[in-house]
From TrEMBL:
GO molecular function, one term: beta-aspartyl-peptidase activity
Sequence positions that bind substrate: 218-221, 240-243
Keywords assigned: Autocatalytic cleavage, Hydrolase, Protease
Pfam families given in the database record: Asparaginase_2
Protein name per the record: beta-aspartyl-peptidase
Length: 324
């Protein structure tokens, strides 16, 4: 048994022709956040602190759909969601509808630590964050030119658009349309982290800005315990993809249930859920087990992901490897 960590920056239809200026910053962010988590685990930090630390860092990176990079609602506003869960105690916290808090995952952590509840939303969650001194900014802080362009594209097409992290340039439209079945949609975005320490303590955290042009008040899978985020004594899971599909399949909980009730390994359980429980092209996840196993399956074109284990294994990737 040893520590292990995995993180993701979203799964989706990511063309292999993705230009270096769009790919390299994300790979650098994954590498930086992975090292941050590894250093914390090596310093004997609790996995709960590790996943919060890593997700906060991912939220601060404008290239991902969470925190600073959150996409916009149909009204041109930001509504952020996050969730965190401890596997040993199964304590958890979740938030939705945040508009001014810099790090949504830390509000979720406070809901878990400081209230008798699990889930707070909208004005109540905002007020709670302010009462506890968390950093807040004007909502305009989150509204980037890239996300304004994404919203414009979605409105012109009259659709709710799965998030992507760079605007589609005219000369890139053909490759994006080809990669997304002609819709121009992509799913790059939601961020998450799972970790286990040498004692088998597990934790998970997930954060997102949701969908481009989503209805005001829409809630996705990220803050729903058992859908986008779940941890128990067997494993910790953080999912990404089309939120409605992930909710219907209770993706994160199903991985844990297959391990607990069917005796499947982490890799077997995760592969079954991603391969059989959700439609092709809709989901991915990262997960670790109490014994230090790690897996990062997805049924989309790619998933921004990274992992490391105490025995020296490290992986940073976007598209499937030859082995996969």
């Amino acid at each position: 048994m040893g520590w292990a960590i995995a993180l993701h920056g979203g799964a989706g239809d990511i063309p292999r022709s993705l230009s270096p200026d769009r790919r390299l910053p994300r790979e650098a962010a994954l590498r930086h956040c992975l090292q941050l988590g590894v250093s914390a685990l090596q310093s004997h930090a609790h996995p709960l602190d590790v996943v919060e630390l890593v997700v906060r860092e991912l939220e601060n990176h404008p290239q991902f759909n969470a925190g600073k990079g959150s996409v916009l609602t149909t009204d041109g506003t930001v509504e952020m969601e996050a969730c965190i869960m401890d596997g040993k105690t199964m304590r958890c916290g979740a938030v939705s509808g945040l508009t001014t808090v810099v790090n949504a995952v830390s509000v979720a952590r406070l809901v878990m630590d400081k209230t008798p509840h699990i889930y707070l939303g909208f004005q109540g969650a905002e007020a709670f964050a302010r009462e506890h001194g968390l950093e807040t900014v004007d909502p305009s802080h989150f509204i980037t030119p890239e996300n304004i362009e994404r919203l414009k594209q979605a409105k012109e097409a009259n659709r709710v658009q799965i998030d992507y992290t760079q605007p589609i340039k005219q000369d890139e439209k053909s490759e994006v349309l080809a990669a997304t079945g002609g819709s121009g949609d992509s799913q790059i975005g939601t961020v998450g982290c799972v970790a286990v320490d040498r004692d088998g303590n597990l934790a998970t955290a997930t954060s997102t800005g949701g969908l481009v042009n989503k209805m005001v008040g829409r809630i996705g899978d990220t803050p729903v315990i058992g859908a986008g985020t779940y941890a128990n004594s067997y494993c910790a899971v953080s999912a990404t993809g089309r939120g409605e599909a992930v909710i219907r399949a209770t993706v994160a909980r199903d991985v844990a249930a297959l391990m607990e009730y069917k005796g499947l390994s982490l890799q077997e359980a995760a592969a079954y859920v991603v391969g059989e429980r959700v439609p092709q092209g809709t989901a991915g996840l990262v997960a670790v087990s109490a014994s230090g196993e790690v897996t990062m399956p997805f049924n989309t074109t790619g998933m921004f992901r990274a992992c490391a284990t105490e025995d020296g294994y490290t992986e940073i990737g976007i598209w499937p490897t030859e082995q996969e």
